[in-house]
Amino acid sequence: MINFCEIAQQYETPFYLYNLDKIQEKFLAYKQAFAGRKNLICFALKANSNLSVVAKIAELEGGADCVSIGEIKRAILAGIKPYRIIFSGVGKKDSEIKEALKIGILFINVESFAELKRIEAIAQEMQIEARISIRVNPNIDPKTHPYISTGLSENKFGVDIQEAKQMYLYAHKSLALKPIGVHFHIGSQLTELDPIIQSTQKIADFARSLVAIGIDLKFFDVGGGIGIRYENEKTIDLYAYAQGILSKLNGLDVTIICEPGRSIVGEAGYLVTRVLYEKRTQNKRFVIIDGAMNDLLRPSLYNAHHNIKIFHEKKQEKSLADVVGPVCESGDFLAKNAMLPPMESGDLIVFENAGAYGFSMSSNYNTRSKCAEIGIEKGEVFILRKPESFDFIVRDELEILNQRKNR
């Protein structure tokens, strides 16, 4: 049991708290679910890229799904081997492609024909062979929030099967490209298994057609996206997920790659805040806290829900309140219409299931410092990332300003 009150006495709020034991448990559950087949579990760094969190994945012999050269470098700094790193994303710069090839990652996930030709040109210039996979869009509705849906033809990700076939044929003939995998990812926060199984069947059939014409696929990447319970969502059983995927891969001698992010770290993270004061208008009650949308963007961006834990609960009757932060936006809320007792300055409010897309989407809006990240493992509490100071935020700008003044 985590003693939030005790930890909040040691560290200034707001801060993120990650349970590293739970992260390990969630990661190992994936490895166990796919244990009957060659597999590589590549943690999606976009969910949470704290070096200590990624280092825990490295300890467990996990890989990394990265969408920038920065994430690739983070993965390597944390101890993940280059041959366990894949590079995804629709907009890779030439410099990023070149550096990824130089590092020698497992493969690059290609999102368009134009990108395939750029990778080929860069590989030719470097006189190396680029290992690639192609992200195929199965055009199946993942039944999730439209902002995190990625598998429909209207989304910016991947290519349709017909274009993918042409891309594989092109890559197969190229001396600078080596197609070794096939990839799909239909969305994030998925709570229904059927779209995943339908997509697997569709892409597995496509993969078998590629193998039949001599394209030697080694990896079958099923993406990530299993949802967690933020409020009352149904979640997908991990064993049923793995077995459903494996049942569609008959005749394919491939290593399964899975890219979980949210389902590894989401439930293991908390945003810990303190009440500043209450404010009442004629029609509304606000509980104003020291955390804000720059710390946890999901409620403002997706209207996402995070359950609240409160401490020192008063016996007075609860009433509806919006929990809001100091940022100068009406969209700066972390909870709407929450049933809360009267709150006093200094009371703790903890937002649950905040380990994914919490800190990684935070910003310095309103020149607010990014908050600390704290870890807990086997009962020991320790700092993972210090809160930013004002001097840290402005250091580069100030140096440039002073240089210009001194001209």
Structure in words:
This protein has helices at residues 4-10, 20-33, 51-59, 69-77, 94-103, 113-126, 161-173, 194-212, 238-246, 262-265, 298-302, 390-405, and strands spanning 15-19, 39-44, 63-66, 85-87, 107-110, 130-135, 177-183, 219-221, 255-258, 269-280, 285-289, 308-310, 319-324, 333-340, 348-351, 372-377, 380-385. The protein is α/β, with parallel strands linked by helices and 407 residues long. Strands 1, 10, 11, 12, 13, 14, 15, 16 and 17 form a 9-stranded mixed sheet that branches. Strand 7 (177-183), helix 8 and strand 8 form a beta-alpha-beta unit.
Distance between the termini: 58 Å
Query: Which descriptor suits the 3D outline?
Result: globular
Uncertain spans, ≥5 residues at pLDDT below 50?
144-153
Individual helix count: 12
Structural class: alpha/beta
Q: What portion of residues is helical?
A: 25-40%
CATH architecture of the largest domain: Alpha-Beta Barrel
What are the secondary-structure elements, in order, as H or E? HEHEHEHEHEHEHEHEHEHEEHEEEEEEH
The biggest sheet, with number of strands, parallel, antiparallel or mixed sense and barrel status, is:
9 strands, mixed
CATH fold assignment of the largest domain: TIM Barrel
Tell me the strand percentage band: 15-25%
Please name the fourth-level CATH homologous superfamily of the largest domain. Alanine racemase
- CATH domain class of the largest domain: Alpha Beta
Average per-residue pLDDT, rounded, comes to: 93
Radius of gyration: 23 Å
Number of strands: 17
Number of domains: 2
